[in-house]
């Protein structure tokens, strides 16, 4: 059974701080790694899909890197804002389906 | 931007009753999914559906669960005889053709409360 882990479980940062968190996944039979942003009372929003080792994607102040050989991905947020407060989910895609990690809950304090 | 829509937003049902959760996926999407999240736990895969049949299901998706695409737009999850432990948020998702490198688009979820 594919097991996807995320750390830390939760994180509190001050507005303006930069932060990062980790997703780890089995490196064998890797297909794709997805990051989602999930705000309370809303649906998960797709941020990035990454497939290649060494891939780096950026969307505004958020970026992500991928290491498929060692089985991890980092998500970085530069200059955190209160509106970045959400749960960040990663998911490892295999074939047609996904396995989600437990998420990292980020709280950005003004 | 097209969205996945789910109804109802909140469903309260007596234990033992049947419940149907409804989803309207994005119109040109071909793969459909149901997930659930029990309060405080991680998102769990239930079932995937493609070409009018189940393509994969998890251990959670036992004989009490079924899915259907009764017409060209709706995708439903039925729980035949609900149990207390079925209380959770249920999310529907859809995506376009292609393998697991295409993102899934999620609905806002249905909160199911079993009394």
Please tell me about this protein's structure:
The complex is a heterodimer of chains A (110) and B (115). Chain A is mostly beta strands and 110 residues long. Helices cover 0% and strands 56% of the residues of chain A. In chain A, β4 (32-38) and β5 (45-50) form a beta hairpin. The radius of gyration of chain A is 13 Å and the shape is globular. The mean pLDDT of chain A is 91. Chain B is mainly beta. In chain B, the strands form 2 sheets. In chain B, strands 2, 4, 5, 6, 9, 10 and 11 form a 7-stranded mixed sheet that branches. In chain B, β7 (65-68) and β8 (75-79) form a beta hairpin. The model of chain B has no long low-confidence stretch (mean pLDDT 91). Chain B starts with a strand and ends with a strand.
Layout of helices and strands:
The complex is a heterodimer of chains A (110) and B (115).
Chain A: E1 5-7, E2 10-14, E3 19-24, E4 32-38, E5 45-50, E6 56-59, E7 62-67, E8 72-77, E9 86-94, E10 97-100, E11 104-109
Parallel strand pairs in A: 2-11
Antiparallel strand pairs in A: 1-3, 3-8, 4-5, 4-9, 6-7, 7-8, 9-10, 9-11
Chain B: E1 5-7, E2 10-13, E3 19-24, E4 31-37, E5 44-50, E6 53-57, E7 65-68, E8 75-79, E9 88-95, E10 105-106, E11 110-114
Parallel strand pairs in B: 2-11
Antiparallel strand pairs in B: 1-3, 3-8, 4-5, 4-9, 5-6, 7-8, 9-10, 9-11
Characteristics of this structure?
heterodimer; A: 110 residues; mainly beta; six-stranded mixed beta sheet; five-stranded antiparallel beta sheet; 11 strands; 0% helix; globular; B: 115 residues; seven-stranded mixed beta sheet; four-stranded antiparallel beta sheet
Short description:
The complex is a heterodimer of chains A (110) and B (115). Chain A is mainly β and 110 residues long.
